[in-house]
Amino acid sequence: MNDTGNLAWMITASALVLLMTPGLAFFYGGLVRAKNIVNTMMFSFISMGLATIVWVLWGYSLAFSGGGPFIGNLEMIGLNGLDVTDGDAIIFVAFQGMFAIITPALITGAFAERFKFSTYMVFLVLWLTFVYAPICHWVWAADGWLFKRGALDFAGGTVVHINAGIAAVAAAWLLGPRRNISSGIEPHSVPFVLLGAGLLWFGWFGFNAGSELASDARATMAFLVTNIAAGTALTVWVILQYIKTGRFSAVGAASGAVGGLVAITPASGFVNPLGALVIGAGAGALCYGAVIVRSNFNLDDALEVFPVHGIGGIWGAIMTGVFAVEAIGGTKGLLEGNGSIMIEQIIAVVATLVYGFIVSAVILKVLDMVMGLRVSETDEDIGTDLTSHGERGYVADGADA
What we know:
CATH topology: Ammonium transporter fold
CATH architecture: Orthogonal Bundle
Mean pLDDT: 96
CATH class: Mainly Alpha
């Protein structure tokens, strides 16, 4: 307890994970039209405030206090009972709080440019309480039902990415498409997209390697395979996009990297470099294919949250059961002769998809009836920066482009 080396690494890892949220803000902000950049980035930034309050008051207790297989209790409400002399316990609260901050922010890419900011603030609180905290408890709490079954999720493939991805589907479905987008919308700032992806990639080392909760060989392997999967997925996406379009897309490169990072997240503490290579390659191909398939449906997941986070998370979770190496994570995967782990991975994926979609849809439907989900047509045409925040992202010509 309170090993200074481990604590130093975990403090660093926690800061890296927090950096991912501003990184996400730049990534999403660059993808939208200039008249919506402030609003899009604020969806992420407000989470750093609201999610922190929820986590301290009741979120951590619901996620990690003993209460049964499905949800914790409120015995640690307001972090009551936290041992102020136990550095390990304190940093665990902080580290997990960073996950709670970024997860609802991921969803916002699905409803960019048309969601009421006031409604989002209420949605964030409710979603963390009734969707994120229970699934977090299932997977990572010692008495969670998926944890006890042996499902593997090292850093959040189910808890974070599949969870956010399927909530994004519910939001896009209930909200409906943006106005006047039949010809597609060009990202207004590709440099912001690349900057955001770079910050996400950098912060992701804390996300995955930090999930070991120690500075040891398994953490360094998680660091290594995270980079391998991201780089491989980036390359595969760019090549496939070149084959289809004849161009090497920078946005495609950024999206491919994020898809690879998502896919390796559940596997990062269990697989070796060759496993990471396959997971990354599959993520690049599947996430790119999912973007193409999604475009053929009338589901305006504006910034491709489900194709990248949902599909990437599903692929990564299932492949964890294939490539898990006992010498790394203590669990054999399919390639080492343990076929039963695949069943547990599939159960975890399906449970997350079903519960996440149903409860997210219920929350959104109730909020639609009480507050309304969508900004007015006039506000959408003017842009949500001015109408929701009274600010512009840019004052030069083209601010309303």
